[in-house]
Specification:
With about 350 residues, the protein is of the alpha+beta class. It has nine helices and 15 strands. The strands form five sheets. The chain has a six-stranded mixed sheet, sandwiched between helices. A three-stranded antiparallel sheet has the order 1-3-2. The protein has a two-stranded antiparallel ribbon with strand order 4-5. It is elongated.
């Protein structure tokens, strides 16, 4: 997507994050919805500052960390090999292996690393820089780590660390979508989250928006089964829908698309991306067949919902294809968020007007 460095757009990234990660809608973060952000770095700094302040009030998460240390008295278990080395070296010390409650764990290390990246390399408003810097003394005993080496699949949350979850998601987005490595192996931050990660956020935002705001429809993201005559589909790809809205016998499948270019061009002619159109048509026809096989009559429609770009041509079309409605729309993320909400609400209302009445 062709992005613009404007406060409206970046503020909308906060709204997208707040729906995708619902914890961001808590009281500590509510005032961010009314703030202006010059740069993406400012948004992440504001989220981290408020999130860390909340963690400090309740006490930073601590967990038991294994340590081996030479001591004058026994603590924990005696580590035999180290103790023997001390004896040979005529050191009157016992090598002990013990567990100690420590703030120097992965969750706090991720937070400190993200904060220090923003302070060192982020183009921050001076007010936000000072706010974030005031949080750092609370992490004096916490190590920084290499953000590239973080194994996110090992991040686990206990009952007393659940409050870290939203900040871990934000840090992961920042590291994955903005981290650049220089020729010398140093890290710096890009101006915007890259399109790949913004695409995932865009999909999750639309799904969670409808789940929160449209209680008159059932919201899901199911896999759609292939309508096979012989049941043999071992090598067929998974059809994973982004958003499926349903009420009564009406179904709308939305495929959310976040691209640099909404239209494809061939020989000076602009058209809708053919692969996207084939995909949503396939989803609709197979979903219709699945419901028909279950013995129910349904009206199944599909929509390609693109994030609007700066291109001249922006699709707003409705097609009737083999008995199904396929529409192509754009969602303008550079509008005030109330207008974005109105666009999304209008999509649901248009498709489910008869079902609501």
């Amino acid at each position: 997507m062709s992005t613009k460095d404007t406060s409206i757009y970046i503020k909308n990234v906060y709204h997208m994050l707040a729906y995708a990660f619902r914890e961001l809608r808590m009281a500590e973060f509510e005032d961010l919805a009314g703030e202006e952000f010059e740069r993406m770095h400012d948004l992440f700094a504001a989220i981290l500052t408020r999130g860390i302040a909340r963690l400090v009030k309740q006490g930073l998460y601590r967990e038991y960390v294994g340590r081996i240390e030479n001591l004058s008295t026994v603590r924990g278990k005696i580590e035999l090999e180290g103790t023997l080395r001390n004896r040979i070296a005529h050191m009157q010390r016992i090598s002990c292996e013990y567990d100690e409650l420590s703030e120097n764990n992965l969750l706090n290390q991720v937070l400190k690393t993200a904060a220090m990246l923003l302070l060192r390399h982020g183009k921050l408003d001076e007010k936000r820089r000072m706010e974030l810097r005031r949080m750092m003394p609370f992490f004096s005993d916490v190590d920084e780590i290499d953000p590239v080496a973080i194994r996110w699949d090992t991040v686990r949350f206990q009952r007393n660390s659940l409050s870290y979850r939203v900040l871990m998601n934000v840090c992961r987005l920042m590291f994955s979508g903005m981290l650049l490595t220089t020729d010398k192996g140093r890290h710096k931050l890009a101006k915007f989250v890259d399109d790949q990660h913004m695409s995932r956020l865009y999909e999750k935002f639309i799904l969670e928006y409808y789940a929160v705001e449209c209680d008159y429809v059932r919201v899901s993201s199911p896999q759609i089964k292939w309508a096979l005559d012989d049941g043999h589909g071992t090598l067929l790809p998974v059809m994973q829908s982004d958003v499926t809205l349903s009420r009564g016998n009406t179904v709308l499948i939305i495929d959310a698309k976040y691209y640099s270019h909404v239209m494809q061009q061939s020989y000076d002619t602009q058209t809708i991306h053919s692969s996207n159109l084939y995909q949503i048509f396939t989803y609709v026809k197979n979903k219709e067949a699945e419901l028909a096989n279950a013995g129910t009559q349904h009206t199944v429609a599909g929509m390609l919902l693109y994030a609007r770009t700066d291109e001249t041509v922006q699709p707003d079309e409705i097609y009737q294809m083999s008995g199904n409605q396929i529409s192509v729309r754009t969602l303008d993320l550079n509008k005030p968020f109330d207008e974005i909400k109105s666009q999304l609400d209008g999509i649901a209302e248009d498709h489910f007007a008869e079902a609501i009445e």
